[in-house]
Design brief:
Layout lengths: L3 H15 L2 E3 L11 E3 L1 H20 L4 E4 L7 H6 L2 H4 L1 E6 L6 E3 L19 E4 L3 E3 L9 E3 L5 H6 L1 H8 L5 E10 L14 E11 L4 H18 L7 E5 L11 E9 L2 E10 L3 H10 L5 E3 L4 E3 L2 E8 H12 E7 L5 E7 L10 E5 L4 H15 L4 E3 L5 H9 L5 E5 L1 H7 L1 E6 L5 E5 L3 H10 L1
Parallel strand pairs: 3-9, 19-20, 19-21
Antiparallel strand pairs: 1-2, 4-5, 4-6, 7-8, 9-10, 10-16, 11-12, 12-13, 13-16, 14-15, 17-18, 21-22, 22-23
Length: 441
């Protein structure tokens, strides 16, 4: 396997070449740390989100979803503490003007040019913009730096409309924006990104137990979707890392090619957020506990992950190089994304072995039938070996080949498995059911 920098280079290059991720605004020279998901990346990312929704919403009876707006009343960000405190300490180099996060820098001089640093200053990470036609202070609003506050401000709306009892949670996926000082490492840290966040409201005395349960559930989500155990770990925050209101926080970390880093954080945020919104807005944020016959502000457990980071994690973790036979049985190098079949952009590739009419007609018919159920790709160009290689490197779990035997003899096609490379002949008429079983089991 490639060394670590090489591995990242290979993933970035595969992403561009095959249409997972392109540099943003590339024809204008790019815009630092913006990335666009291409045809395959968009499918992969949507599958990641669908699996998240399935796990945190569909498969549970204590969760509901929300889709709040990006632009929120500016006072919400005062209440949340972001206007005051959402900042990174930073230093500028007086010579080359480069900016660094003070907590990232161990040296006393600029690592780029040896220049002197300015004093440490605070820099607010929220993007500001103006609402309405007048560009003055009164019209300033923020692009949300997290989706969580959209959940908190809707706590009462959701709770009363859905009639949920504690413990229950609200899940949301959406874009967030942070004017990061040091973006980078491909899609790992960008200024515009998507978050998948849950605010799970609990009785205060059940918070510790339910926090542990969420830590397990979220760790298992990555693991069950194929991320290797040796590349995943839980890291509890040190007491001095914890926000003053948080009781506990653990990061799920992944071993990226450059080292361990956070892919998701799970925190016990106590009653801090709802209390703040109650205080600042003047609106009740309490829950009526019928059993205890009392009103109180629930505690909240927050599993907060990044869609882009999760997608990058699945890409990196599934990347493999091994050997596969070409048409003549000679072994050749192949790149294969061993993506879980639920995440793979295409589930099935349809590969007619000849461009002759009966075969193409049959392939088109199969393609039309399968597309009603599964995302498919159709490829009739190049040798069959090359076509398998193209599907392997984008993670397509199955390929169907149609040949003369299909038409002339047995009305069967060959299914080839990406991982085992085993082939089996199956009846055309039963293909949908066969793939249902293979893909949905
Ligand atoms: P970091 O320490 O890496 O800056 P954070 O602790 O500030 O992250 P949170 O505020 O806990 O991150 O956000 C929750 C999740 O959102 C992170 O686990 C990550 O997956 C994602 N996320 C946060 N910032 C970014 C970013 N700039 N680019 C991509 N994803 C991000």
């Amino acid at each position: 396997m490639a060394n670590e920098t090489e591995l990242m280079e290979k993933i970035v290059s595969l992403s561009k070449r095959r249409g997972f991720v392109f540099p943003g605004s590339e024809i204008y020279g790019g815009l630092e740390s913006t990335w666009d998901y291409g045809p395959l990346g968009m499918l992969l990312k949507n599958n990641v989100k669908a699996q998240w929704w399935k796990a945190v919403l569909q498969e549970r009876d204590d969760m509901v979803g929300l889709d709040a707006s990006i632009l929120m009343h500016p006072t919400a960000w005062v209440a949340s503490g972001h206007v005051e405190g959402f900042s990174d300490p930073l230093v500028d180099c007086k010579s080359c003007k480069k900016r660094f996060r003070a907590d990232d820098i161990k040296e006393t001089k600029c690592p780029e040019c040896g220049g002197e640093f300015t004093e440490v200053r605070k820099f607010n990470l929220m993007f500001k913009t103006f609402m309405g036609p007048v560009e003055d202070e009164a019209a300033v609003i923020y692009m949300r730096p997290e989706t969580a506050q959209g959940i908190f401000v809707n706590f009462k709306n959701v709770q009363t409309s859905s009639r949920k009892k504690l413990p229950f949670g609200i899940a949301q996926i959406g874009k967030s924006f942070r004017n990061e000082i040091t973006p980078g490492k491909f899609t790992f840290r960008t200024r515009e990104f998507e978050q998948m966040e849950i605010e799970y409201f609990v009785k205060p005395d059940e918070a510790d137990k339910l926090y542990d349960k969420w830590v397990d559930d979220r760790y298992n989500w990555y693991f069950n979707l194929g991320v290797k155990k040796e590349n995943l770990r839980l890291r509890p925050h040190d007491p001095d890392e914890l926000a003053h209101y948080a009781k506990a926080c653990k990061d799920i970390e992944y071993k990226y090619p450059w080292g361990w880093a956070e892919v998701e954080g799970i925190a016990n945020r106590t009653d801090f957020d709802l209390s703040q919104h109650q205080k600042v807005s003047g609106k009740e944020m309490t829950y009526f506990d019928e059993e205890k016959n009392e009103h109180y502000i629930p505690y909240v457990i927050e599993p907060s992950g990044g869609v882009d980071r999760a997608t990058l994690t699945f890409l990196v973790d599934s990347y493999a190089e091994d050997k596969a036979p070409d048409e003549k049985g000679k072994m050749e190098e192949r790149v294969v994304l061993r993506l879980d079949k639920r995440l793979a952009p295409y589930k099935i590739a349809i590969l007619p072995l000849s461009k002759k009419e009966p075969i193409i007609n049959m392939a088109n018919k199969i393609s039309k039938d399968l597309r009603k159920h599964f995302m498919c790709d159709y490829d009739d160009r190049g040798s069959i070996g090359k076509r398998y290689r193209r599907q392997d490197e984008v993670g397509t779990p199955f390929a169907v080949t149609i040949d003369f035997q299909t038409i002339e003899e047995d009305n069967k096609v060959t299914i080839r498995d990406r991982d085992t490379m085993k082939q089996e002949r199956v009846p055309v008429d039963n293909l949908v059911n066969i793939f249902r079983e293979k893909l949905e089991s």
